[in-house]
Amino acid sequence: MASQQFEPPSGTRDFLAADLRVRDHVFSVIREVFERYGFEPLQTPAFERLETLTGKYGDENDKLIFKILRRGEHEASGEADLALRYDMTVPLARVVAAYGSQLPTPYKRFAMGPVWRADRPGKGRFREFAQCDVDVVGSASPLADAEVVCAVADALDATGVGDFRVLVNSRRALTGLLEVYGVAAEVGGGVLITLDKLDKLAPGDVVRELVDARSLDTLTAEALVGDLTAEDAVERMRTVLKDSEEGRAGLAEIDRLLDLAGPTVGVGRIAFTPSLVRGLDYYTGVIFEVVAAGMPGSIASGGRYDRLIAALGGPDVPACGGSLGVERIIGLLSNAEEESRRIDVAVTVMDQDSLAEVMAFTSGLRSAGLRSEVYLGSSRKLAKQLKWAADRRARYALIYGQQERAEGMVTVRDMDSGEQNQVPVDQLASHLRGR
Amino acid sequence: MASQQFEPPSGTRDFLAADLRVRDHVFSVIREVFERYGFEPLQTPAFERLETLTGKYGDENDKLIFKILRRGEHEASGEADLALRYDMTVPLARVVAAYGSQLPTPYKRFAMGPVWRADRPGKGRFREFAQCDVDVVGSASPLADAEVVCAVADALDATGVGDFRVLVNSRRALTGLLEVYGVAAEVGGGVLITLDKLDKLAPGDVVRELVDARSLDTLTAEALVGDLTAEDAVERMRTVLKDSEEGRAGLAEIDRLLDLAGPTVGVGRIAFTPSLVRGLDYYTGVIFEVVAAGMPGSIASGGRYDRLIAALGGPDVPACGGSLGVERIIGLLSNAEEESRRIDVAVTVMDQDSLAEVMAFTSGLRSAGLRSEVYLGSSRKLAKQLKWAADRRARYALIYGQQERAEGMVTVRDMDSGEQNQVPVDQLASHLRGR
């Protein structure tokens, strides 16, 4: 932990080498998968014009936007004109509006990087955290939904998360469901928000909230919750939804997705899940969530949102996408990570007259791709320098004292076994490279 | 260009795929070199507490700091409590103060990422731009200076910049020089700032500024500028500096650096350069600058700054470092970059009934590492889909119509030659992989 005075600002983190390497590795394997799918990287500025962001996230969330004070003579006004990126989707809408025909059609892009939200910091909740989004803008094809789901699942596999399941539903199926149960359209949104809590609350509590807060009658609420949480919920839904046109359309798009993505994701790892709701009201078609064994909540999610890009200020184009919970994934992997070696070769410095020679052969080691460090401290004692080599978790330490120099040799010490060998200076790189 | 309404904020940029790939490539090769030297990555938050930054950069520069408005009930105060990172050095000082003994000794770190300055935007001058710093904190050894210079030169080589020279001088040599010429200590700093303009102004103009603005007498100013700009400036300096203790110490550290770094950098690419000044007054030892053929200004620079970490709020430790002008380097490379292929395989969709099969063999191509895309548009026409494949600059297009499906074959079209072959579905990945 950082001593308090020098801690990073509340809700943010300093990433030292070990953590940063895990993060960079995760981003890098995800990037590789997305590129294989033909998704293109996009990077937008850390801040946007304030008016680009405000009004896009709802009143409560607008309060969480970090705003940047005007500068120079305008600073005293206390007004803001810029704001830190709150997510990757509003910048995407702006980019689609800005570059239109310069972008491929459809525009398949991924974005990875920090976003900032002035949330109350807590365990696993940060004010600066990474998001990782993959989206297809400008295609209404069910193949696009399938591509997103497959890319997300492949990316999770590549990070090594392993044991996960993809839950699938459709916003149209949910609309059909409400229709069949006679829920009035104007309370439908609220009912879905409450149903979304089925993975956290007991069924009875959800029924109570549906009655108290969403004004459903008790019978309807119990039937709805009963069907969604039944052992045979999938069969019940398949029957019930047939009575609604929206329901039938929803079922068809769910089956389409299972059909197209199943073979890639693994048929046993993807399933229609009637109780999956996704509270966000911008979804218009299939929706999905990925859950991992032993983890509460989801590690990825997404769906089709055909009207969102327009609502965010972009053109009116169909779109779908997914988001990986990279911070949670990194958290999973960091705990598992072993302490790894930091460097290959630690070069001790025994003789001030031979510094140039030491630098020269170290340079050769680096050219051969060996991670090598020269001792930069002030001690002349070998024992102290070998302790430094051990602290750096080097595989080998090199000793080049007066005797070695006279003989044109370098002593190579294996830091695990303590074994020492003499190797001619001009064979050092190939010798160490070979081991 | 973005249509104006949707442009990114003034002084910032959206990076679409082609540009972003060049940037990421440059960062990646630099990272690899620094890691080979045993430098560790560090990433600090985008913003710091305001008090961490203010007063560290001088009054003029303080105005360029982007400040973040307080939130919630405090927003109306118009006050700021946070500010965007202005450079990588102040965060380094904070990290060294915060994590002390958890860090290796010395702490060799590199940092790459955006910084933000509310400068007036202009050609090649941005408000959000990348910095790339490499530093050794906690070593007074001349080897540390040499390691920094070698790492910077190796990194430049790795990016492909090629034709560059490393100019070397020493702050102590400059102090000795002023001493020998009888320049009063209290005007010395100003004299050096003026001498720093020798690479931009005519010698006569520099003499004039030394007389007018720095109150040197004309004879001294002319002698100083004359010696620094002479053909045999190096020889003159080597003679002159012998008359001062600081001068002799400076010469010794310059020669040490040339001796240690010369073999790695290339002896012909590094040289003592008496007119190199580096305006920044925090340097205490050797200083360097890297210049590239045909480019005004420098593409990298650095030196020893033994008292800066303490001045910035960190502990009092010796340190040295260098900074790569990554934006300039990226600019050099972007102009040279060729249009590259975007994807390996474009998969057309001729038959709605075979979508699942198309997805399945595309998935196989991706597993084999081929960058593959499926057509997501609405046209059923082959010609239109082949135009899409050409727009995507695919190497191959695949056609899987009813006839191919009946025969278990896929038609592979070479997008350069137009040649078409039929390949069994189950041999597709190995066939394309092999070519």
Features:
435 residues; BirA Bifunctional Protein, domain 2; 16 strands; alpha+beta; 19% strand; homodimer; 3 domains
CATH class of the largest domain in chain A, named Alpha Beta
Which chain pair shows the most residues in contact? A-B, 105 and 105 residues
Overall outline of chain A: elongated
Head-to-tail CA distance between termini of chain A: 38 Å
* Sheet having the most strands of chain A: 8 strands, mixed
Number of helices, where a helix is a run of at least 4 consecutive DSSP H or I residues of chain A: 17
The named CATH superfamily of the largest domain in chain A: Bira Bifunctional Protein, Domain 2
Query: Roughly how much helix do the residues of chain A carry, as a percent range?
Result: 40-55%
- Helix-strand makeup class of chain A: alpha+beta
Strand order within the widest beta sheet of chain A? 1-5-6-11-10-9-7-8
Number of DSSP strand runs of chain A? 16
Fraction of residues in β-strands of chain A? 15-25%
| Average pLDDT metric of chain A | 92
Q: Tell me which CATH architecture of the largest domain in chain A applies here.
A: 2-Layer Sandwich
As for the number of domains of chain A, it is 3
Please state the oligomeric state of the protein chains shown: homodimer
Describe the protein's architecture and organization.
Two copies of one chain form a homodimer. Chain A has 435 residues and is an alpha+beta fold. Chain A folds into three domains: 42-159 and 305-331, Bira Bifunctional Protein, Domain 2 (BirA Bifunctional Protein, domain 2, 2-Layer Sandwich); 162-298, BirA Bifunctional Protein, domain 2 (2-Layer Sandwich); 345-434, 3-Layer(aba) Sandwich (Rossmann fold), CATH 3.40.50. In chain A, 41% of the residues lie in helices and 19% in strands. Chain A has 17 helices and 16 strands. The first copy, chain A, has an eight-stranded mixed beta sheet. Chain A has a five-stranded mixed beta sheet with strand order 13-12-14-15-16, with helices on both faces. The first copy, chain A, has a three-stranded antiparallel beta sheet with strand order 2-4-3. The longest helix of chain A is centred in the middle third of the chain and has 21 residues, at 245-265. The relative contact order of chain A is 0.11. The mean pLDDT of chain A is 92. The interface between A and B is large, with 105 and 105 residues.
